[in-house]
Each structure stands twice: as C-alpha cells, then as structure tokens.
Amino acid sequence: MCRWLGYSGDPIRPEELLYQPTRSLIEQSKSHAPDVAIANGDGYGLGWYGTAQGPGLFRSASPAWGDSNLREISAQLRSPLFLAHVRAATGTPVQQTNCHPFRYGEWLFVHNGFIEAFEQVRRELLLTVDPALFPGIGGSTDSELMFYLALTFGLVEDPLGGLERMAGYVETVGRRAGVQHPLQMTVGLSDGVRLYAARYASGPEANTLFLSSSVRDVRLLYPENERLQHFSDEARVVVSEPLVDLPGLWREIPPGSAVVVQPGDDLEVPFGPQAS
Fold this sequence. Notes:
Helix 4 packs parallel to helix 5 (142-152) and helix 5 crosses helix 6. It is globular and about 55 Å long. The chain has one domain (3-270): Aminohydrolase, N-terminal nucleophile (Ntn) domain (Glutamine Phosphoribosylpyrophosphate, subunit 1, domain 1). It has helices at residues 15-18, 25-30, 68-76, 118-128, 142-152, 159-176, 215-221, 226-230; strands at 3-12, 44-49, 56-60, 79-86, 102-104, 107-115, 183-190, 195-201, 210-212, 236-239, 250-252, 257-261, 267-270. The longest helix has 18 residues, at 159-176. The strands form two sheets. The protein has a seven-stranded antiparallel β-sheet. A six-stranded antiparallel β-sheet has the order 5-6-7-8-12-13. It is α+β, with helices and mostly antiparallel strands. It contains eight helices and 13 strands.
C-alpha cells in the first residue's frame, strides 16, 4: 500500500508535513500496514506549485527515509499547494519513471491502490489512451495508466467526471476479463488551484482517506498547540493516513466520495464509476 498527502493553503515548507509530525509521511514510509508485508521503500516523489509556469517535480527510486536531497529540498522551497507520495511497488519495476506524482501540463496525480490482474488487462487499457497523449507515459505502472485514461476521458475539462469515467472503463474491462473486483483507488489530483481527492473500490474494502478539519475550529480545540497557530484558516491537508493523533483534526472521507479543496467553501460529492 502506498501513502500520499496533499496540501492546500498559504505557502509552507513541505518538510512541515513530510518530516515534522509524529506520524509524518516519512515515518509512515518506514513501516508497512498490518496487511502489507513491505514498507514504502520503492521510491517517492514531491510535486509542487510555485513561481514557475506549471508544477515542479522531484522523484527518486530510493527510499524516502534515507534521501538527504528530499530533506534539503523540502526544507528550502515554499508552496501553497503540493502533493507527496511514497511508493510500495505492486509488481512493476522500482525506477524513477514509476514514482508518483505523475505530471501532465498543469496537472499532478497520485494514487494509492491497484488495478487487479493488471497484466491481463494492461494491453487493452493502454490501447484506449488517446494517441496524442500516449507519448507522455514514461513508466509502466497501473497508476500512471489510470491518470492517462482519465485525461483521455476528459479530466482537464471535468476532473471528477474524468476520474469516474476512467473508473467505469477499468471496471468494464476487468470484469470482461473475469475479475470480480477490478479497482482499488484513493487518488489525489491538482491543477494548481484546486486539490481533488477521491476514494473508491470495486469491492467492499476501500483504502482509507482523510481530510483535515477547519483550522479555525481545531485551534479552538487545541489553543496550546503552537503548530496549529502557524497554518492559515484556508489550510487543508488530505492524507491516506493521519499524520498526528489529535481528536477532531481528521475527518475520514467515506468510500464512494470525492472532495474538492478550493478557495472558499470545500465540496464533498458522491463518486462512482460512469460509463465512458
């Protein structure tokens, strides 16, 4: 199981979420989940929005916990919106091009989950990708292919709709191949303005996803916590697993749901596969 996080708010240093919390993403990468035999040591990535056109991207196939370059970069840059990911490979090679986030134009994409029986359905899924988009695929993961399928199905114009049509197509192809539960996904997606996150699984169990509560409300609960005073009222964090154990800080996003973190009021909407 991979882990990832997304942040949106006033600019902060990514190290404040990657390294400093008691259950930071780096700490999580060192230990596996109860039903997973390996840690998240198969690479990592950080994608951020800053002063340049489009997002920056830094990825490596080395374990995140031992890479001094990540620590240096995350301590020096400041960003109002970033996505970070630590990888546990599920059958595809450990190499930089297979590390998240994946980037296309203004978009960044991270994923925790898998396409069941991927080798059986991979060729059909690949051939569905828009030929104009196909050269952008640099790796061999099911995650990157999901991103490019969603782009093919209109993600740029309709982000959540593109993800839903991708999910519907993956399920159609998988079940045609005899796969009972083709898809497990929690995804993070951004265009530099909004942060989208969705939680869905074809079967009964969906990987976890959490959204931080209103910073203003949490400050009232924990006025003695100096770290919380630092974050703006607009700050939100989406995580596959909570970074700290503070009651009231995290709200679990239900399966079959998506959230849109944006300036002003955030949105929570149903999420489900659509016919493409």
